[in-house]
Each structure stands twice: as C-alpha cells, then as structure tokens.
Amino acid sequence: MKLPLICAAMVAATVPSAPAFAQELARDSSWTVTYDDPSVADSSLFLVVMKPGWHMTTPAGSGATLSQPDSNATGSFLLKSVIFTFNPDAKPFGPVFARRGDGGAPTEFISVLLNNDGTVGLFHNAGTERHTIVPWTASDAIVRQLNAGGRPVKNVVTVLVGSSTLRVYVNGTEVIQQAVEHDFDGGIGFRVGAGTNLHVSELTVAALGQD
Questions:
Q1: What pLDDT was estimated at residue 18?
Q2: Are strands 197-207 and 54-57 parallel, antiparallel or unpaired?
Q3: How far is it, in rounded angstroms, from Cα 131 to Cα 195?
Q4: Burial class (CB in 10 A: 0-12, 13-18, 19+), 172
Q5: pTM
Q6: Beta bridge partners of 90
Q7: Which of 118, 97, 112, 114 shows the shortest CA–CA distance to 198?
C-alpha cells in the first residue's frame, strides 16, 4: 500500500531560470518553509509549481528546508526524488524526512544531501542543531553541473528506510548504508542550500515490508 504521494516527471530538458518566471507564476503555498536565516524575507524564495514538478531558487543569503505538511513516511519506506540542477555554484540539496514531536509538528529530520563537488552526506537536524551522521563522501555516481550556460543535470536520489538500516542510492548506485536509531513518522520534503536554482520533478514515498 502506498503512503500519501507527491509525484511528477520532468517537463523539458531545459527550464528557464527563476527570474524569467517570477512575474508569471504564483508562489506554491502548499510547502512549509524554514529558513536557515530567519531574517531573510520570505518573498526572496522562488517556489512555483512548474508541471510536472516544482521549480525553486533559494535566496543568496539563506538555505531553506521545505516540507509537505500532509505527506507522511512511517515504518519502512522508500523515498525517491528526481532533481535537476542549473547552477555550478549550487549548494547542498536533497530529500528530507521528519520525526514528529508530541505536538504533531516535525521536531527533527534527516537530510540526504548532494553537493556539486561530487560528494554526498547524511545529516540529522534537531531545531537549530545539525549533526553529521555520514560526512561528505565522494561518489562517481553523482552527476555534477559544470557548465553555467548549459543544460541542467539530473540526479535521482532514492532512500530506503528499513527497521534497522538506511540505504541511499544515487542514480542506482548505493552510496550510503547506515544503521537507524529512530522511527520517523513525519512528513517528507526537500533541503536546498543558499542561492541554488533547481527543479524537483519527482518526490514520492511508498511503504515497504520490514527488512
């Protein structure tokens, strides 16, 4: 049985950068956005539905964590994201999944992040604190964006969360295997570093059997 689902496919190989669309597309208000720098103006984030998927550009002064409040990931599950990046100076980006507190709001989350230098890492965030679970590790599986004037590059990040083990695949290659210590029962979302222009064409979660 599938859990609540957010899904799309890339509309085209090239998508113009955010400024070209800023006056044409309305902000997608379905996401909950938390900025690294709370003083950053919310209007500085470009976040729109660009079917299929979403296009987003974070402000130069702050990264952001975006979550879908009505989504859910519990027990053993598979989380898949398809990401197209546009700028060679993109900061770390990737899918997140959360754990809810007693009040029902996400209190902590795990982020699986890719860096455009060809590294991948696994991190745990609780409030303003971030802990490194798996440090930045180089992987040839990551497709890097090298040409500022060229076409976007695509990376598929798949996370398998089991009862005792978390596995991360990038473009079909396993890049992380890590023991898990918490049950996650919150929403799924996305982490985007400061000044990063990207398109998320798919973000899906589905229940799995126990490992």
A1: 45
A2: antiparallel
A3: 22
A4: exposed
A5: 0.85
A6: none
A7: 114
CA distance 163 to 75: 7
**pLDDT digit string, tens, across residues 106-152:** 678 889 999 999 999 999 888 778 899 999 999 999 999 987 777 89
- DSSP H/E element including 21: helix 18-21
Tokens of 162: 């089991």
Residue appearing with tokens 């980006």: 93
pLDDT tens figures, 175-194 = 999 997 766 776 899 999 99
Distance CA 201, CA 54 (A): 6
3-state secondary structure of 205: strand
Rounded to whole angstroms, the Cα distance separating 211 from 204 reads 20
Contacts of 181 (CB under 8 A, 6+ apart): none
Query: 154 is written with which tokens?
Result: 């695509």
